[in-house]
Structure formats: structure tokens, C-alpha cells
Design a protein that fits this description.
The complex is a heterodimer of chains A (151) and B (396).
Chain A (H helix, E strand, L loop, with lengths): L3 E4 L17 E5 L5 E2 L18 E5 L3 E10 L18 E8 L4 E7 L13 E11 L3 E10 L5
Parallel strand pairs in A: 1-9, 7-9
Antiparallel strand pairs in A: 2-3, 2-4, 5-6, 5-8, 6-7, 8-9
Chain B lengths: L4 E12 L5 H16 L8 E5 L5 H5 L1 H9 L5 E5 L5 H14 L5 E9 L16 H9 L3 H16 L3 H15 L13 H6 L2 E3 L2 E2 L8 E9 L1 H6 L6 E7 L30 H13 L8 E4 L4 H10 L8 H6 L16 H5 L3 H17 L12 E8 L3 E8 L1
Parallel strand pairs in B: 2-3, 2-4, 9-10
Antiparallel strand pairs in B: 1-7, 1-8, 4-7, 5-6, 8-11, 10-11
Helix pairs in contact in B: 1-3, 4-14, 7-11
The chains are: A mainly beta (151), B alpha/beta (396).
């Protein structure tokens, strides 16, 4: 039976299944050009914004450079979903600097990427990922992984 | 100085895992502060509580909860929440009341009974809460953020895991002399290195524990202190409670992204540096005037960042300052002479108040074996979730 794929938060990334074209989605203020991720749909947060602008959805850069990274060697508390009976598998977190947006975005690294395989300044790309899987559902998210050839 | 308020009394409940209610810790700390001030509870005109969110409603209305535990006596009451900066905001509220002439003597109380392990967000399905989201989507605990900052320091400034461990060695040595600290045993660099990695590159002994504890202050106007025969009290000269300025470019708890700097050029210096700068400007003194500092060493690596942010050294020079011994007891400007959070652990609403307790004992010259000789001025610094900055300057 096909399982339902549900994004962990709706509207934060494209609906594309694993494959080309996966992008994080933010918003941009038409009055001052400020970019927001997670998306800000209610108001522009730039105190110098002249006002009156619209917040339009915008895809973020697909690639960036590692700002920093770490991992989680112990099981985090709920609402993080994990099977308490299964042995804990550490995951890696990567903070990525997006040049065009001049911002840093945090995400989990793709499985198999460990701190030993990362370095500050390394180029990474965003890809479709899976956060957790239930009986009939798959919760999707974004992952960062090193761009091939830069490792 | 017209902006000064006097610290008439200080008190603490020892930090630890006592398994009792936060109300009991706060009441004990308040009683100790009142005794230290030589006042009766009924002399207090205003009580300000730093909120304990895990305590449910009694914690959300901490000012009234502590007032009830001490016995209703009709005082003005205030409750404040600013995450880790709650204690400093409570001090700020008390000071403002005194300076505005609304009260001559104010009791400030903070206390917590923290759960074991990682701090978790409030329950329920709440995708509009950044604190809930960072756990749900990323499993990003507080130590994960501390790990990111630590790794960044290693890449930018060449800090090493050995440098980080040295912070724990230093703070545990100081904490061994503090009867209120939870951990009173000196820790070796080898013990830090032998502890388990929690969030690369940080190990268990690089990260502060969660604790129970309570702290309280009795603050009053300078005239009130003189009338009580206290001619030369420890004085609070500045309380900084600033927010960041847009765009905030350093990834920070609990956010999963920074602001974009596309539209506005970032201000010079970090948010943390602006916290201390605001305090120095208000106090009319600078880092060169400090005898000591108490900073939030939530992780060992973070303490090094604070050295730079409060102006003890230039950017990237924190580890060098540490290695020279300048920030240890006996050094030029001891940092976390109390033992810091490394020795106390986190008792969120209490710890910013506890920092001021330590400054008070040091400036009075009653800090015993951890006394900084001739201490005349000190700063506390911390940062609360969601963009709360706080620092307190005290002088003698």
C-alpha cells in the first residue's frame, strides 16, 4: 500500500519527491527585499522597511557553505519522533550559509554524513529527506549533503 | 550616582537535585536574603518573581507564589519571564520601581526545579512555536546549539577541545570553594576528555547540567540603605536588557535560521557584545575597570565567547586569555569565581540572580576562599531564549 507523504511543516519546501528541483521555500518582502526562512507571511520583520510590501513565496538557494556542524549522540525529547525501543542512531546537524540570501539555515544532514565528513566552508546542497515513518505515513523534511566532488 | 540602587541582602538555596518544589527553594532564598539585609518580610514593599514555566500556573505567577509562601502582606507584586534572562529582568523591574520612587525596598526571587536531561518544549502540537519546531524537525537540543558554536570557534579561531576542557577545570576549581554549588569537586582535563560526547565536539563535562536552586536579593534605594546604617553598600549601577538588532546574523536558540542580511547591513559586533556594551554605557565604566565577571557558561566553549563579548580580549583571543590564567582565581580578571554554571547547573529563573549574589559577596569581600582581592566592580552577562539579553554591573 502506498504511504502518504506529508511535509513536517507545510509550505517550507517544494513538494517534489526525491530528485531534482527540491528547494526550501521562504518569503521575500517586495518593499525592502528582506528574505525570511522559515517563511514569514504575516508581516515584514525589518524595522527599516518602508512598509506596504507583499510577502511573496521565494525558493532559497539550492547550495550553500557549511557555517558549522554538530551531532546528537543522545536521543532528543519529544516532539522529536523516534522509536524508544530501537537503539539510538546519532544524526548530524549542519548550519549552512546561503550566499545570495545572506542567511544561515540549520538542517539535518543526509544519513551517512557525519561530522568527520564535514568542514566549515564546505559546499553542500539541499535535498529531499525523510524525518520519520509511521504505519501509513512518511514525514518529509530537508537534508543537507556535501556536493559531489567537494568532499 | 543617581541611578544606583543598593544590594541590602543576598540569599540562595543550594543548587542540586533536591526533588522539592521551586516554591520551597525560592522561599528559603528569600528568607536568607531578608536575614542578610536585617529586614522583616513585612518591611518589603514590593516583590518581583522570575517565572518558572515548568512550575505550571504557580510558576507563571511566581511573584505572587513567593509572596503567598512568605505570607500575604499586601506588597506590590510583579512576575517576569525572559527565559535565561528572567532573573536579570526581575532585577531590572525592581530597580526601576526603586528609581521611580514606587518602592524603597524590593525583594527579587527566582527558583527552579528542573527536570533531568535535555530541556524540552512545552507539550502539544504547536507548529507556530520556534522552540517546538526545532525539536520536532531537527531534534536540536540546547547542547546541539552549543556544539555548533564550539565547532565554529575551532574553525575560525583554532580553539581546541583541550581549551574547552580548561574552562571546566578552572570553574570546577572555583566551585569547589562555593558552599551553594551543586558540584564541589575539582575536575581534571583528563576527566573531561574521558566523558561521553553529547554534541560534537562537546562532551558531557563541557555542558552544564540542569539543577534545582533558588536565589534572592533585597534591593533598596540609597537613602533607605543609609537610614539603615549601611553607608557603603554594594550598588547596582546598570541593568542591560537589550534585544538584538536586525538582522541577527548568528544562528541562535531556538531559531533554525538567522535573519537575512540582504536588505540591511548587520551592525558591527555580535548581539552578545551589544548586551555588555549597553551595560557599560549605563554604568559609565568599561571592561578595564572590572575586578571580575560572572557569565553564562552553558558550555565551556561559550564562556570563551563571552570573554570577547564583554571586552576582556579581542575577537578570537578568548582561549589565549584562558591559557594565560587571566580568568582563573588569582588572575587579572577572574571569570565565574562562583564556579559558574559548570558548578551550579541551570536553574533558569534563579541563575541571573545568583550571578549578582556572587558579585555582592565578592564586592563585600566575604567570598572566602574564592575571594577576588580588592574587588571593586563586576559584570554579569547572559542571554535568554528568543532574543533576551541581560547584564548587570555592580560596584562598591
Amino acid at each position: 500500500m502506498e504511504r502518504t507523504r506529508t511535509p513536517v511543516v507545510s509550505g517550507w519546501f517544494t513538494g517534489a519527491e526525491a530528485g531534482d528541483g527540491f528547494r526550501l521555500l521562504g518569503t521575500r518582502c517586495s518593499a525592502c527585499a528582506s528574505v525570511f526562512f522559515p517563511r514569514e507571511d504575516a508581516y515584514c520583520r525589518n524595522p527599516h522597511c518602508p512598509g506596504g510590501g507583499e510577502l511573496a513565496e521565494v525558493p532559497l538557494s539550492p547550495r550553500g557553505r557549511v557555517w558549522s556542524y554538530t551531532d546528537g549522540r543522545y536521543r532528543p525529547p519529544a516532539p522529536y519522533v523516534s522509536d524508544p525501543d530501537a537503539p539510538w542512531e546519532p544524526y548530524t546537524l549542519v548550519a549552512v550559509e546561503l550566499e545570495a540570501e545572506r542567511m544561515v539555515v540549520l538542517g539535518q544532514a543526509a544519513p551517512g554524513v557525519t561530522p568527520a565528513g564535514l568542514a566549515v566552508g564546505m559546499e553542500v546542497e539541499v535535498v529531499a529527506g525523510v524525518l520519520d515513518e509511521g504505519a501509513g505515513t512518511v514525514t518529509t523534511t530537508w537534508w543537507f549533503r556535501p556536493v559531489e566532488g567537494t568532499r | 550616582m543617581s541611578g544606583d540602587v543598593a544590594v541590602l541582602g543576598v540569599g540562595m538555596h543550594p543548587w542540586g537535585k533536591w526533588g522539592r518544589s521551586f516554591v520551597e527553594y525560592g522561599r528559603a532564598a528569600a528568607r536568607a536574603a531578608l536575614a542578610d539585609a536585617g529586614l522583616e518580610w513585612t518591611d518589603v514593599q514590593s516583590v518581583v518573581g522570575a517565572d518558572t514555566v515548568r512550575g505550571g500556573y504557580p510558576g507563571y505567577v511566581a511573584g505572587a507564589t513567593f509572596a503567598r509562601a512568605l505570607g500575604w502582606q499586601g506588597a506590590r507584586v510583579t512576575s517576569v519571564y525572559a527565559a535565561c534572562a528572567s532573573g536579570a529582568q526581575a532585577i531590572g523591574a525592581a530597580r526601576a520601581q526603586i528609581l521611580a520612587g514606587l518602592a524603597d525596598v524590593v525583594l527579587v526571587v527566582g527558583a527552579d526545579a528542573a527536570p533531568k536531561g535535555f530541556f524540552a518544549p512545552a507539550g502539544g502540537e504547536r507548529p507556530d512555536d520556534p522552540d517546538w519546531l526545532r525539536f520536532r524537525i531537527l531534534g536540536a537540543t540546547n547542547p546541539a546549539y552549543f556544539g555548533l558554536y564550539a565547532r565554529r570557534r575551532m574553525a575560525l579561531h583554532g580553539d581546541t577541545a583541550e581549551d574547552f576542557a580548561l574552562v571546566k577545570v578552572k570553574n570546577s576549581a572555583a566551585g569547589a570553594h562555593n558552599p551553594y554549588a551543586r558540584y564541589r569537586k575539582a575536575v581534571s582535563a583528563g576527566e573531561v576528555a574521558a566523558s561521553a560526547v553529547v554534541a560534537d565536539p562537546l562532551r558531557l563535562l563541557d555542558i552544564c547540567a540542569t539543577s534545582d536552586g533558588g536565589a534572592a536579593l533585597v534591593l533598596c534605594g540609597m537613602d533607605f540603605a543609609r537610614a539603615r546604617g549601611v553607608a557603603d553598600p554594594v550598588r547596582i549601577r546598570a541593568v542591560s536588557t537589550v534585544t538584538p538588532t536586525y538582522p541577527r546574523t548568528v544562528l541562535d536558540l531556538p531559531d533554525i535560521a538567522t535573519d537575512s542580511a540582504v536588505a540591511v547591513e548587520p551592525a558591527a559586533g555580535s548581539f552578545r557584545a551589544s548586551i555588555a556594551r549597553a551595560a557599560y554605557e549605563e554604568a559609565g565604566l568599561g571592561p578595564e575597570d572590572l575586578s571580575l565577571a560572572e557569565v553564562y557558561d552553558l558550555s565551556t566553549a561559550l564562556e570563551l565567547e563571552w570573554y570577547e563579548d564583554i571586552g576582556l580580549c579581542g575577537e578570537g583571543e578568548g582561549a589565549k586569555l584562558l591559557r594565560e590564567g587571566a580568568t582563573a582565581l588569582g588572575g587579572r580578571v577572574p571569570v565565574n569565581a562562583s564556579g559558574g554554571l559548570a558548578s551550579f547547573g541551570e536553574a533558569v529563573p534563579a541563575q541571573a540572580i545568583a550571578q549578582v549574589c556572587e558579585l555582592t559577596w565578592q564586592l563585600r569581600g566575604t567570598a572566602g576562599a574564592r575571594q577576588v582581592p580588592g574587588a571593586r566592580a563586576g559584570i554579569t552577562a547572559n542571554q535568554g531564549l528568543f532574543g533576551h539579553g541581560s547584564a548587570v554591573v555592580a560596584v562598591r
